[in-house]
Amino acid sequence: MAPAAFQEYKTYTQKVKSLQIYPKKKPLVRIGICTDLHQDLIKDGEKRLQSFITEMNQAKPDFIIQMGDFCIPKEKNKNLMEIWNQFTGPKYHVIGNHDTDGGFTHDQVVDFWSAKGKYYSFDTNGYHFVVLNGNERPEGDTSKGYPRSINAAQIKWMKQDLEATSLPTIVFCHQGIDNDQDGLKEGALIRLIFERVNQKAGFHKVQFVFSGHHHEDYHNIYNGTNYVQINSISYQFTHPVKGYDFAHTKEPLWALLTIHTNGTAEIKGRKSEYMGQEASQNDPEYNGYPNVPYISDRVIKV
Ligand SMILES: [Fe+2]
After folding, report:
1. Helix 187-201 crosses helix 152-164 at what angle (to 10 degrees)?
2. Residues in domain Calcineurin-like phosphoesterase (predicted)?
3. pLDDT digit string, tens, across residues 6-48
4. How far is the CA of 97 from the centre of ligand 1 (A)?
5. What domains sit in the chain, N to C, each tagged with a CATH number?
6. Residue 76 DSSP class
7. Residue 260 CA to ligand 1 centre (angstroms)
8. Angle subtended at Cα 172 by Cα 171 and Cα 173, rounded to the nearest 5 degrees
């Protein structure tokens, strides 16, 4: 091949490659994700949620989901729900540990949000989605503090639900299933169940697990499953372990997940900076995940 023709061929193949990463074809599925609004702990929750909903009504993903620590089921939060319900497409909820603050029950939260259930699954555009409730208190547990558990009945339901579907699956849980330090206590067991479900299926059926709760920004891969932590729409902590002071971001943070027909998943995250007080850098003795005012952009092959 003559050098000029070879160059032309090289440019052409590069173009084809780039088209494969960002194909012009309609994506399989697009999802708007936000988490940890903490309406009851901050002053500008409605404004932050309104920004998310306004943009989602323009972007028109297949559905939106909030991953917990949204709002307690109290009359004063009806305005917030009206903002949430302005989204014209399907809307899903994950329960967070703060959503029952003040003594509310999970059922009251589900009713107030008009959520599909405490834990449930659904299909959209050839994908299966599983929403878990990581806030169950183990039987006989009298300890104080927030539970971060999934009890045997829910684990059994989840296992049967995952085995029953032949579709690639995305799991949502408020607490990190890959974070054994302060995430879901049954994390190791659930990761093992995902691994066995994948082995039985003969492909990576459980492709993604999304979580919030930790107000951090990271991506881990365990046995081929991608665990992605989505940062809070509102704030990070000024102390990584004990800190109850908040470092608010100037702009609200959220992510748009797009899964293309060629098996490439693209996460586009919003970026901001701190309003006044900075979030602390993580204590090296702690988990070491970054405390940052943004959600990273990621391209992940699935
Ligand atoms: Fe939380």
Report:
1. 20
2. 30-233
3. 565 555 555 545 544 444 578 899 999 999 999 999 999 999 9
4. 5
5. 28-86+95-301 (3.60.21.10)
6. G
7. 30
8. 125
